[in-house]
Amino acid sequence: MKVIRGISQMRAFTKNARAKEQTIGFVPTMGALHEGHLSLIRRARRDCDKVAVSIFVNPAQFGPKEDFKSYPRHPKKDLLLCGRGKVDAVFMPAAKDIYPPHFCTYVSVSGLSDVLCGRSRIGHFRGVATIVAKLFNIIEPDVAYFGQKDAQQAIIIGRMARDLNMPVNIRLMPTIREPSGLAKSSRNAYLSLEEKQRASVLYRALKMARELIRMGHKDASKIKKRMQRLISAHKITVEYISMVDLVDLAPVTKLYGTVLIALAARIGKTRLIDNIIVKI
To answer: Pairing between strand 143-147 and 24-29?
Structure first.
């Protein structure tokens, strides 16, 4: 496994793979790897000749009052896990190389970035789209893998890739969960054991919504109210519960087609997100 820190060295890896007509699977991460990331790596390993993983805590996607400085960083453990996952190259660039002095070019995916998490995390998805566009340009993967837990992010990246004619296939993979149902997340490290137990209600609320829909309920507002009551009963602050079209993230009031049911909530200072996709 190669640990690559320079952009030119990462491009040389890609050039060598291309010369051998090898396909490249790419898993972009901010480190603090967990089973969710490893599931993406395993799928990339299965699908492609070469697997590249990036580890970069992207300052451009954090707001001024968010957790950039305290975000979990475990580079030695991350490299060990990548080695076990038979990753071929781990790209760990320095911020000064990704965002050199006088950097002023950003990628913004209008509309999709302004809803759901974008309403409270102003500029977040601009930072996400920019770093992923840069990584796509550097690594030139054939396939990039994203977890469904960050469904809005994956939808935005997919739209960016299509709109800008990027020759990469975006593959959305299932959310990996704790036995309790809590979605795996690097930010789960902020939670106490008791908070993790309470947080499991988020997935229970999503499953309740799915079951109500299967029973014939089609009024989104009524289902959201029931989800809100269930979550609030566990002393969790709900930021939003939304039911939206899976393609354009437009709100759906009468449920039909394929719907993304997404939520964000806070336990103490920790912000958690989760979602499910329901075909009606």
So the answer is: parallel
Query: Model pTM?
Result: 0.97
DSSP assigned state of 30: -
Classify residue 189 by its DSSP letter: G
Q: 249-265: per-residue pLDDT in tens?
A: 999 999 999 999 999 99
Encode pLDDT of 67-95 as tens digits: 999 999 999 999 999 999 999 999 999 99
Catalytic residue among 34, 37, 102, 124: 37
Helices (H) and strands (E) in the chain, counts: 9, 9
User: Can you list the domains of the chain with their CATH numbers?
Assistant: 2-173 (3.40.50.620), 186-274 (3.30.1300.10)
Neighbours of 165 (CB within 10 A): 6
From CA 78, how far away is CA 2, in angstroms rounded? Answer: 13
| Residue 250 structure tokens | 């437009």
Q: Is 74 an annotated catalytic residue?
A: no
